[in-house]
Design goal:
alpha/beta, 2 domains, two-stranded antiparallel sheet, 14 helices, 36% helix, ABHD4, Alpha/Beta hydrolase protein, monoacylglycerol lipase activity, AB_hydrolase_4_sf, hydrolase
Length: 416
């Protein structure tokens, strides 16, 4: 058993507890997220996944359960000014404009969760579908949408530009598009994982109070790319397993879109295919594609630890101290303590997007505290709760019941 440690400013920002009461963000967590604060705030790792490497390795091969295949996304392609595109995967599908289930003006008033995947991932990832199949189910019934990076999630690459940890414009455009699908005042939360978490936090720091998001969640964020890369390549195992594995995944994406990527005169295919580590890939491809003078310049610019001080909305960050990819040495402790809008939750164990518990059928512990936070924020801002119309008023879920509800849904779907 490992306890959750919370790091934050001495006086965190005031947030709505309900329609009439404001409390500090720390009080909000204490009252609404029992798996982040209090006697239940502990992680019991699967006995045979007892360290960060085992948790991370299991996460790499964990495909979820057949019930996750019931998530059938509705895909929307969003074009960018440069001719590129990202794929937005909605679940449940958006109501048709002429459907009786659609809102009168065609806009949703359902609280919506936006997901951002990790390196070379997409909406198919088990860590995304595992959360979505719970929050979109009864009694939560929330809307969700996944932002697939350029060329990811089996989407066609339209230009010779992919994605990187420093590029936030696609997310900025996508969030504006998603906001246009919602009625004014409808709460919107974004959650990012690994690379997606870094892009999200960097975007939040750049955007400040202009973001349409009500709150955000960062999971397994590497934060400091300069130090993170040094940590990855300082050990033989991490360099030959994690760094090499990520380089291979990126090379596979390159090969998938090889024809159009080779039209970029800055890129040499032979140099890209010869790389064996993540740093080598970023030298041969990423920094050249985005016009950086060096990989160090790219890593410095990409580091969300430089931007987290400027985040202006409630942000919950979750990291494991034994994460071999998002190394604990990269955590922006001082920056978090200087920003009243941010809370960093740490567990001693959990690996990289792992946090697997239970023996026979491991499932992710992280789903419970994250859904507690998501539910609490949505309920505090959900305008449907202010109406007297019983037919449209959603069910209010008590914080102490969220974990039981999550476990019930997971059990029903064969996740735990």
């Amino acid at each position: 058993m490992t306890k959750v440690q919370l790091i934050h400013h001495k006086e965190t920002v005031k947030v709505p507890l309900n329609e009439t009461t404001l409390v500090s963000l720390t009080e909000f967590i204490q009252q609404k997220c029992p798996h982040l604060y209090g006697p239940e705030a502990s992680f019991h790792a699967t006995p045979y996944l007892f360290n960060g490497h085992l948790q991370t390795g299991y996460a790499a091969y964990y495909k979820g359960t057949p019930s996750m295949d019931d998530i059938l996304y509705q895909r929307e392609y969003l074009g960018m000014k440069d001719g590129g595109q990202v794929a937005l995967d909605w679940f449940p599908a958006l109501p048709a404009a002429n459907s009786t289930d659609a809102q009168d003006d065609g806009l949703l008033d359902t609280p919506t969760l936006v997901c951002m995947h990790g390196l070379t991932g997409g909406s198919h990832e088990s860590y995304i579908r595992g959360i979505l199949e719970v929050v979109t189910a009864t009694p939560f019934n929330y809307q969700s949408v996944v932002i697939n990076n350029r060329g990811c999630g089996k989407s066609e690459l339209k230009t010779s530009q992919l994605f990187c940890g420093a590029y936030t414009e696609d997310v900025r455009v996508a969030l504006k598009r998603i906001q246009k699908q919602l009625k004014p005042g409808t709460p919107l939360i974004a959650i990012g994982f690994s690379l997606g978490a870094n892009i999200l936090v960097k975007y939040l720091g750049e955007e400040g109070d202009r973001t349409p998001l009500t709150a955000a969640i960062s999971v397994a964020n590497p934060f400091d790319f300069v130090r993170s890369m040094d940590c990855l390549e300082s050990g033989t195992f991490s360099k030959n397993v994690y760094s090499a594995g990520m380089a291979t995944n990126l090379k596979n994406v390159f090969k998938l879109h090889e024809e159009i990527l080779q039209t970029n005169e800055r890129i040499d295919k032979d140099n890209v295919m010869a790389v064996t580590t993540l740093r080598e890939f970023d030298e041969a491809f990423t920094r050249r594609m985005f016009g950086y003078d060096s990989t160090h310049h790219y890593y410095f610019d990409a580091s969300s630890s430089r931007k987290i001080e400027h985040v202006k909305i409630p942000l919950l960050c979750l990291n494991a101290l034994d994460d071999p990819i998002a190394n604990y040495q990269c955590l922006p402790i001082e920056q978090v303590q200087s920003n009243p809008n941010v809370i960093l939750a740490l567990t001693p164990h959990g690996g990289h997007i792992g946090w697997f518990e239970h023996f026979r059928q491991p499932s992710r512990w992280m789903n419970i505290p994250l859904i507690e936070f998501i539910t609490a924020v949505f309920q505090a801002h959900d305008r449907r709760l202010l109406t007297d119309d019983v037919s449209t008023t959603p069910q209010v879920i008590d914080p102490d019941d969220v974990a039981k509800t999550v476990e019930s849904i997971e059990h029903e779907k064969g996740l735990a």
